[in-house]
Task: inverse folding
């Protein structure tokens, strides 16, 4: 059978042509969505869009396990003040600064082959900027693994800037350094206790805020959220439109440690608190906590800064009036911080954790 003339022509052309044959392209990296089940979100977060979770409270973030030589995260920051702490393979924590807008954050690089674990924590406070996880990227040769199991034990810490870890990285002169934010939630006493006791730690805190009023004397009537308002939020904001509720049924702590009063007492000399009213509000707050967290122990302490014995007395009065075997008072030690800033130092946060650890172990049987 004769070959058709047109076929002969095409065979001749193909034989004579030295044109390269296009190779099938292979992706250089793998992209992983934030709502991938292998991405474990930690702390409180805005989960209305799980493909783009938002984090406000310090200590919130995510953890993943992967095989590969590198891992990057695409993160949007609402400010130039937000920062992260990254822990690779349980090694020393590392700082990652963020800029306002989109950030390509190198979480790990130049790694040996094999499985690796990365933990990412928001280092800074809500008012210093909300951050949003967009996606993760790793080389094409890598792969995501099942996330590490989170501890079953749970601790919640409700408080102000001390609980958030403000001032931990202060220089001796308290001089601001944009390359080294003074806030460091990872080394705050609540996070330290979580690591010591093998427990998850939720830092539900906001700098400058109190029980009844903030450090300026503003309260709920002034549109300012203090602890009885922000403890119910995943994203705290004085702007009602910016507030995101938190569903307490999603995360029930074994114990809640409440450290409030420092900012309520800030104007004590010029605008003293009404003791009866303040104690009444604290009693109502504790009872609200008891209603939402029925099985939790609640420990009240006055914090490390205020030395006025009246605050200790008022906290003790609150415990007495609540009259519940699962509500206890824990005396705080005074830690002076630095001459230029009363916030406890890194070493003093270790001492605060030292003070609370035996109390928690005894209370919870840990």
Result:
């Amino acid at each position: 059978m004769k070959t058709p003339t047109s076929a002969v022509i095409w065979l001749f052309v193909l034989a004579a042509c030295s044109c390269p044959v296009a190779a099938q392209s292979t992706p250089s990296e793998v992209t992983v969505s934030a709502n991938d089940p292998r991405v474990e979100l930690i702390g409180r977060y805005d989960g209305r869009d799980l493909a783009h979770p938002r984090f406000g409270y310090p200590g919130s973030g995510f953890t993943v396990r992967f095989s590969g030589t590198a891992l990057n995260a695409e993160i949007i920051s609402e400010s130039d003040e937000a920062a992260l702490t990254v822990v690779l393979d349980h090694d020393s924590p590392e700082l990652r600064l963020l800029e306002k807008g989109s950030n390509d954050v190198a979480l790990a690089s130049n790694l040996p082959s094999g499985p690796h674990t990365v933990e990412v924590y928001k280092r800074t406070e809500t008012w210093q900027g909300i951050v949003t996880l967009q996606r993760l990227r790793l080389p094409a040769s890598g792969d995501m693994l099942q996330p590490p199991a989170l501890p079953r034990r749970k601790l919640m810490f409700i408080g102000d800037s001390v609980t958030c870890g403000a001032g931990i990285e202060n220089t001796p002169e308290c001089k601001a350094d944009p390359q080294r934010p003074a806030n460091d939630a990872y080394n705050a006493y609540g996070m330290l206790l979580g690591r010591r006791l093998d427990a998850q730690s939720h830092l539900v805190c906001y700098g400058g805020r109190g029980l009844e009023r903030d450090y300026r004397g503003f309260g709920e009537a002034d549109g300012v959220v203090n602890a009885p308002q922000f403890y119910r939020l995943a994203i705290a904001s004085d702007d009602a439109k910016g507030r995101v509720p938190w569903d307490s049924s999603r995360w029930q702590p074994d114990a809640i440690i409440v450290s409030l009063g420092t900012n309520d007492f800030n104007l004590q000399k010029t605008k003293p608190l009404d003791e009866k009213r303040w104690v009444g509000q604290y009693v109502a707050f504790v009872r609200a906590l008891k209603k939402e967290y029925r099985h939790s122990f609640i420990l009240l302490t006055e914090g490390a800064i205020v030395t006025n014995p009246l605050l200790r007395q008022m906290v003790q009065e609150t415990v007495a009036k609540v009259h519940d075997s699962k509500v206890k008072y824990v005396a705080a030690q005074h830690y002076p911080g630095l001459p230029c800033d009363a916030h406890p130092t890194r070493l003093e946060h270790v001492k605060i954790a030292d003070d609370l650890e035996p109390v928690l172990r005894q209370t919870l049987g840990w």
